[in-house]
Amino acid sequence: MREQRHTGKMRVFGLVAAIIGATAAQGQVPVISADRQAVHVGDSVTLTWRSSADSAFISGIGKVTPSGTKTLVPEGSVDFVLITQTAQSIQSAAIHVTVQGEKGDPGFPDPDEFQRGANGSHSSTKYPDFLDLAFTTLQDQLRFRVKGDFLPHRSFQTLYTDRQTRQELLKDNPPGIRQRRIAYAVEIEQPAPNGAIAFRVKTLVEYQRIGESRWRPESNIQVGLTAAQDVMQRLERTPPK
Fold first, then answer.
1. How far apart are CA 211 and CA 59, in angstroms?
2. pTM of this prediction?
3. Among 71, 105, 139, which residue terminates a domain?
């Protein structure tokens, strides 16, 4: 009988330990919420997120504290994705906010339109930090609007820019060409075991002929490749904040 009681106590102890372990594991899972999940154009929404991570990034916002709040006015319906990193893993959570009455945004190209790109790598860094570096490089340094393609349980994330006519990034226009415009896509892989992050920069370059309003895909692949290499070098050389 004593042995049976002892076994029962061990089972109870094991169950308690399992519950504690499960609770501890749940504590590592990031959580993000919004005070409203549907707003009208021009209205604000307050995001609240919580994690026990070392580093965190929210798509459309950038690098953030591991836990916090932020009020902002979304331009359109959007998924805010919280990506966190601990010593053990990279995890994410998302919240969708619908903007009612929004107008379509044709400025961002379809991801399938982007041409092949240039590959690069960044030395050991935290994944959310490098996502933020790429975001700020495209937005703050190159002055593009940026949106993210952040899908859960995927090994990479992609940041896209809108189409813009930027002569300084595309060099001189050849004879017969009135103007060019460019968009970028930066695909960022999760870190390798040594901490290095591989990434690819792709471009979409289009042009207008003199006397035409139609945009045509750029036939000179080297134009887009050179622009991709320029951004790749910025990302390789710039240290995260």
1. 40
2. 0.78
3. 105
- Interval 39-92: pLDDT, tens: 999 999 999 999 999 999 998 899 999 999 999 999 888 899 999 998 888 999
- Residue position matching structure tokens 């992050």: 197
Residue ranges in the chain assigned as alpha helix (H)? 2-27, 127-136, 167-170, 221-237
Q: CA–CA distance from 97 to each of 13, 37, 161, 219 (Å)?
A: 44, 5, 20, 39
What is the domain count for the chain? 2
Verify that 151 and 201 share a domain, yes or no.
Answer: yes
Residue (of 46, 188, 26) closest to 91 by Cα position: 26
Burial of 150: CB neighbours in 10 Å, binned 0-12, 13-18, 19+: buried
Residues 41, 133 within the same domain: no
Regarding whether 195 and 153 lie in a shared domain, the answer is yes
How long a stretch of residues is the chain? 241
